[in-house]
Amino acid sequence: MDLLIVGVNHQTAPIAVRERIAFSPEQLGHALHDLKTSQALDELAILSTCNRTEIYAIKTDASASGIISWLENYHNLVGMELANNIYTHFGDSAVKHVLRVATGLDSMILGEPQILGQLKDGFASADTNKVMGKQLSRLSQNTYRIAKQVRTQTTIGQNTVSAASTAVVLAEQLFADLSQCNALLIGAGETIELVGQHLKSAGIAKMVIANRTQENAQNLANKLGAESTALANIAEVLLNTDIVVTSTASPLPILGKGVMESAIKSRRHKPIFMVDLAVPRDIEPEVNELNDVYLYSIDDLQQIITDNLDSRQAAATEAELLIDQAVADFNQTSRSLQAVNTLVKFRQKHDAIKQLELAKALKRLEKGDTPEKVLQYLANQLTNKIIHTPSIKMKQAKADGRDDILLAVENLYELDRETDHE
User: Fold this and answer.
1) 332 within a domain of the structure (yes/no)
2) One of 15, 40, 50, 340 is an active-site residue; which one?
3) Is 50 part of the annotated catalytic residue set?
4) Average pLDDT of the chain to the nearest whole number
5) pTM of the prediction?
6) Domain carrying residue 276
7) Which of 278, 315, 327, 370 has its CA 20 to 30 A from that of 32?
8) Residues 130 and 175 placed together within one structural domain of the fold
9) Cα-Cα-Cα-Cα dihedral sign, residues 93, 99, 100, 102
């Protein structure tokens, strides 16, 4: 398969480069057409996420340097020496890379599932913009199939490997139904936002964002469809809170044992699940001594994450074996399709010779030649026309020292076997 991949990702380029080389949804259509035309590509697709931008190009003599130059010009990056951040794959290596991307084996978080949807979007955009042909279409369908196989036959994506998602998974284990629970999130940074997103996806009934800066709390609350409050109101909010997650930059604890003891008493000992993701800690360690409080620190979560990563790593080894077999199967199918195309052209060429010589033979019959003479003429003409070009090519091959071609002809026509005279 004439697949060339040119890309950058979190392993080869810092975010300052990745964000400049990314394509927005509004840019993608124009970029696809511009790249296809400028590089005379047969087929094309672009995958662009926060962690990677990859160009999938189909052309027999596709040039990585040409595509890199186009990227530099399109994004006004001339002089940045973008080639230092670029990786390329071709042929089998390219097919394997696509499969590894789709299954999350090449992701920042091993086995993360979001990348498959992003890859599907990339291929869908190429299809919508009519720059994707048969080869990329077949690659995309095989990629989706293998990604599903890896997900169902291994545990690559079954264990959470981020603090935010692990916190929510633990909450789901404690409470049977999060849609009956309220959450208090203290802080307004990226970590708290991720926790909020996971809670929202899990169907949490209500979220309240508390932060030292009220404006930041309100902005995040607007994103998550939550409420906001000031830190001074935490004690009151705790009375109706089942889940507390904190992640601030405070040098001193925000929640102490006394506040939590009062909250538990007012809640009539209804349990509270607490996760402290801050360093230094936002919640006094002594809070864990209270009955009906389930407190996890970042170290507690890290151990769970490490165990899950070990599990994913083992699953990744299984996934790599599935992918290696998939690449071999894909190539075998590709070769079969190429053989079919060659066979069709082979038959068409010799059928044309047959039709031409048959027409000549029929004219000889019309002129009065005997059937025996016409059949002899037809047999000779067909033989001469069929072996003419191969004979010239074989003589040239011998002159060039290409004995491999002569051996291929012997195998193809089974020249060592006796002719069947029946």
Assistant:
1) no
2) 50
3) yes
4) 91
5) 0.61
6) 163-299
7) 327
8) no
9) positive
